[in-house]
Design a protein that fits this description.
By secondary structure, the chain is of the alpha/beta class. It has two domains: 155 residues, Jelly Rolls (Sandwich), CATH 2.60.120; 186 residues, SGNH hydrolase (Rossmann fold), CATH 3.40.50.1110. It contains nine helices and 15 strands. It starts with 25 loop residues before the first strand and ends in an 11-residue tail after the last helix.
């Protein structure tokens, strides 16, 4: 059989067909005030520059070329809005049409629409680019009852997004859904797993999922293969007024680099934010680690460096450092959790998020107790 026999699968199964948007939609630019850009550490600068880049242009000159390039991928960034539209579509322009050999286009290059249902965020539809064209239009939903709902549109994990517009049915109202002014984000710094490799869809990486679960904006500063603890990166990250910083970059470092960079990276964040909790997520629990003796040894050595640094920092008087052991976050031997023994699928990311979220929720609670007192354990008889 010809190898291309199933290339046009849409003709065999129309359920695989991507829907074209309806005629006559009202198109709204992503940077229109009726749309809120969220999950971004420099929202005002990004909006002024009309850029989805995760770092501000002014701050990237000293970064490595790899980090500069990867910063154009808007991982975990999303557009947030209310609308009563009965139809929603997107018009997208990515930087290129290149494919990844182990990650579907739905996650690397697509955009995913979520809707709020009570406290839950429900995935609705994905717009997938055609392989031959970096510019595309796709219908996401049609024929829904025209009622005001809150939506999120998650942006590509592994593509530089150049332009995006949202199409809504004529006469529909659209209003930005910004984060509360008093809310501060959780910032994640790490590697390809942090960036979202290899989630099936753009909203199902663990950083985005944790944001949905904890009702907090999360900022994804994972750089695939290039989470190396550079001080230049730490100085940029330290500009963000975060609720928590979560560091998980060890898997991109050899032992000596991790030992050398961890104290300096921590100190830059601590100098800028003396009271903000810093969380060390102890290495990655890769599936192949349970089989390779050498890789297992490396994992344990990097884990021990982080654990010792955490304990030493705690003993030196820093009350606002925390340790989460990566060993139990995504255990090996769970079918369907990895694409290559290293990078999780969306199913693997969901397991990670479900295990990480309670730890982060407790750290947030402890921080609220420390700053404000009371909370869950306040003595109501003394109120």
């Amino acid at each position: 059989m010809n190898q291309s026999a199933f290339a046009d699968i849409e003709n065999l199964d129309r359920n695989f067909k991507s829907e074209s948007p309806a005629d006559g939609l009202c198109w709204i630019d992503a940077f229109d005030p009726r749309i809120a850009l969220r999950g971004h550490g420099w929202r005002e600068e990004a909006t002024a520059a009309r850029s989805f880049r995760r770092f501000p242009d002014r701050g990237v000159g000293e970064l490595s070329e790899a980090v500069q390039r990867l910063s154009f991928c808007p991982a975990s960034v999303f557009l947030s809005f209310y609308t009563d539209a009965s139809e929603i579509a997107v018009r997208v322009c990515n930087s290129d049409t290149g494919l990844m050999n182990h990650m579907p286009r739905t996650g690397s290059a697509g955009v995913e629409l979520y809707v709020r249902d009570g406290r839950d965020w429900v995935p609705l539809a994905v717009a997938v680019p055609p392989g031959e064209n970096r510019m595309f239009e796709r219908g996401l939903i049609a024929g829904v009852a025209p009622r005001r709902r809150e939506y999120r549109l998650y942006l590509p994990l592994y593509k530089a997004l150049e332009e995006l517009s949202i199409g809504v049915s004529p006469g529909a109202t659209v209003e930005a859904a910004p984060a509360p002014a008093s809310a501060r984000p959780i910032v994640f710094y790490g590697t390809s797993v942090t960036q979202g490799g290899c989630a099936n869809t753009s909203g199902s990486d663990f950083v985005s999922l944790i944001g949905q679960m904890l009702e907090v904006d999360t900022i994804n500063l994972g750089f695939s293969g290039n989470g190396k603890g550079e001080p230049e990166v730490a100085r940029l990250i330290s500009e963000i007024d975060a609720e928590l910083f979560v560091l998980n970059y060890a898997s991109n470092c050899d032992v000596e680099r991790l030992r050398r960079t961890l104290p300096g990276f921590y100190q830059i964040l601590r100098d800028a934010h003396p009271e903000t909790p810093i969380v060390f997520l102890g290495s990655d629990a890769w599936n192949i680690m349970s089989w390779s003796v050498e890789k297992r040894r490396l994992l344990m050595e990097r884990r021990d460096i982080q654990m010792r640094f955490y304990l030493d920092t705690k003993a030196a008087g820093d009350r606002n450092v925390h340790w989460i052991d990566g060993e139990g976050i995504l255990p090996p031997r769970i079918p369907g959790s990895f694409v290559d023994g290293v990078h999780p699928t969306s199913a693997g990311f969901m397991l990670m998020a479900q295990r990480l979220a309670p730890h982060l929720a407790m750290i947030r609670h402890w921080e609220a107790e420390r700053l404000h007192g009371g909370g869950l354990f306040r003595d109501s008889s003394k109120a």
